[in-house]
Amino acid sequence: MFNLPKIGITMGDPAGNGPEITVQALLHKDIYERCRPIVVGDAMIFEKAAAILGHPEIKIHRISQVSEALFEYGTIDVFHMDLIDPDKFEYGKVSEMCGMAAFLCVKKVIELAMKGEIDATCTNALNKEAMNKALAPKGLHFDGHTEIYAKYTNTKKYTMMLAHHDLRVVHVSTHCSLREACDRVKKDRVLEVIRIADKACREMGILKPRVAVAGLNPHSGENGLFGREEIDEIIPAIKAAQAEDINVDGPIPPDSLFPKALGGWYDIVVAMYHDQGHIPLKTVGFVYDRELKKWKEVEGVNVTLGLPIIRTSVDHGTGFDQAGKGTSNELSLVNALDYAIKLAQNKCNL
């Protein structure tokens, strides 16, 4: 057991479904056979989650330092942060109290990882509105988890990777307007993301990664007929990467690229903007059952690449509409834990 990686899991926004899916994920016994999980959050919230899910036998073990953790199946070690006033707490509502709690949990898990007390971090969803309302008086603003990690690890070059099994996508830009995203397609940034993508695959144990780069414009610009970004920025970046011995192909029109990637032609795809990468991943990862009128599968992992520490995350939001009902699906968190474990193991072997 002592050789298993320690994985820090954040609570997410406590008004959302993060605590419930965390308890559900940690009911999978094999998780404890592959890692040593520690939850960072308010223990009271996890006691409520266990009760909502009908699992009173689950023990919530409050700890104030990692060395106190038991790492026993049936017991959830919670690095307790006294963040929630039970008299003010309400599920499914945007709350500054809950936004600040989610932020402080992320900050704490980063601190533990930077100190080497845990081997990887795994985050549940936070609500950006709630967090930024809470942080505004302090003069802070973050677009999301990725930017928090970048600030508190002092990282300048990073990108988001989404993964559903062996379909992986990294992004040249993420949280910005579509108009601004087009302006961010520059040779240096595209080359930077190609390099990060290649390195990430190697860190996952893929010895000779096959990288594909999506075009920005319809038909990848059709030789300048529908835009010049491919000619002026993307192709020069690809040629520069090829000169560095990176096995990279493109630019490929995304409507044909993603079917090829699903078919195993490539190990990772470089997308030019947020929705270009997110839509294909969520189309295959989020499966809705029309007859039962509920989500059958909610799978996918968000990984921040380029950091000095490992960060994976669920690939969905806070689920305010399901919070407190015990109906949320934990598959995305289980997938995120799988990736965190794999990355931590590979990092130890490098």
Automatic annotation (TrEMBL):
Q: Which cofactor does it need?
A: a divalent metal cation
Per its UniProt record, what Gene3D superfamilies does this chain match?
Isopropylmalate Dehydrogenase
| EC number(s) stated in the UniProt entry for this protein | 1.1.1.408
Enzyme class, top EC level, equals oxidoreductase
Q: Which SUPFAM superfamilies match?
A: Isocitrate/Isopropylmalate dehydrogenase-like (SSF53659)
Keyword Transmembrane listed: no
Q: Which InterPro entries match?
A: PdxA_fam
- Keyword Signal in the entry? The reply is no
State a single Gene Ontology molecular function: metal ion binding
Cited function:
Catalyzes the NAD-dependent oxidation and subsequent decarboxylation of D-threonate 4-phosphate to produce dihydroxyacetone phosphate (DHAP).
Record-given protein name: Putative D-threonate 4-phosphate dehydrogenase
Q: Which organism is it from?
A: Caloramator quimbayensis
Q: What is the lineage of its organism?
A: Bacteria, Bacillati, Bacillota, Clostridia, Eubacteriales
